[in-house]
């Protein structure tokens, strides 16, 4: 065997198969389950959300990305209507659906993970939520966003004319996608330095998804209190869960009113994560 034939043979043997991306898989299941509106609705929301994020635009709100509990029964009944019992084509179709459902379920549940890996988006910031937050802050007051990541919150506020100082240490760029997909200008400052620089100019501090177990949030809250300034913190996170430090949640003073409730209208959980918007002093 000459060298050329040997090379071709080895290349065929070691050919790397293309692994479908998350979105490619979603599009495949969209067509596979084209007769099931509840499934198409969920997948379409994911695809539209991703389409907007690709354009560096804030996405829409998401429904809960979980398949209905009775979806297998719905599919089974439809297959039985199309094919008589024991029909091989019907059996193959049912098996195809049965094999696909757990995979689709896993994909839907892991959309947040996809957002983190693809866009460095940790808190899901939708356009309607950004509009509510902009209304809460108002056009005359200024805000400081710390640990802004790629700047999704600040982008939404700036789109509505809010003056916001957007800052992040950008120290995580080597570990994940934070800082690699900036959607607005982000000033390189850690949280404490940002507060010291802008404390005289702001009415609010915005902190979204502060890292779990890292006490920088508690250090910042102490710095705000020691400054003697009345600067509430708008915090997006999962209380005593996947975000922030224990010290922060233990020592936070929560402000509860109708305005804060309205901030959560468009910040609803779409998966097993239950983060909320809090006003804290």
Automatic annotation (TrEMBL):
Q: Which InterPro entries match?
A: SAM-dependent_MTases_sf
What are the GO MF terms of this UniProt record? methyltransferase activity
The alphabetical list of record keywords is: Methyltransferase, Transferase
Output the GO biological process annotations, alphabetical, semicolon-separated: methylation
In which domain of life is the source organism classified? Bacteria
Q: Which SUPFAM superfamilies match?
A: S-adenosyl-L-methionine-dependent methyltransferases
Q: What name appears for this protein in its UniProt entry?
A: SAM-dependent methyltransferase
């Amino acid at each position: 065997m000459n060298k050329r034939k040997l090379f071709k043979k080895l290349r065929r043997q070691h050919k790397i198969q293309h692994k479908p991306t998350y979105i490619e898989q979603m599009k495949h299941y969209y067509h596979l389950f084209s007769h099931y509106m509840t499934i198409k609705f969920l997948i379409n929301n994911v695809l539209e959300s991703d389409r907007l994020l690709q354009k560096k635009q804030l996405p829409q709100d998401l429904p809960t990305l979980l398949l209905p509990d009775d979806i297998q029964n719905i599919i089974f009944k439809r297959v039985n209507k199309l094919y008589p019992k024991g029909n091989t084509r019907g059996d193959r179709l049912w098996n195809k659906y049965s094999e696909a459902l757990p995979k689709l379920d896993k994909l839907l549940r892991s959309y947040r993970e996809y957002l983190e890996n693809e866009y460095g988006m940790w808190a899901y910031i939708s356009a309607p939520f950004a509009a509510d937050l902009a209304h809460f802050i108002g056009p005359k007051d200024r805000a400081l966003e710390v640990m802004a990541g790629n700047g999704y919150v600040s982008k939404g506020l700036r789109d509505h004319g809010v003056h916001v100082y957007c800052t992040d240490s950008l120290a995580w760029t080597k570990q994940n996608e934070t800082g690699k997909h900036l959607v607005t200008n982000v000033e390189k400052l850690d949280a404490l330095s940002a507060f010291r620089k802008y404390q005289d100019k702001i009415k609010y501090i915005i902190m979204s998804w502060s890292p779990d177990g890292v006490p920088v949030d508690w250090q910042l809250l102490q710095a705000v209190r020691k400054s003697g300034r009345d600067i509430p913190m708008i915090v997006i996170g999962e209380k005593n869960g996947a975000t922030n430090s224990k010290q922060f949640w233990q020592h936070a003073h929560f402000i509860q009113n109708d305005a804060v409730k309205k901030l959560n209208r468009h910040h609803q959980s779409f998966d097993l994560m239950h983060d909320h918007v809090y006003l804290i002093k």
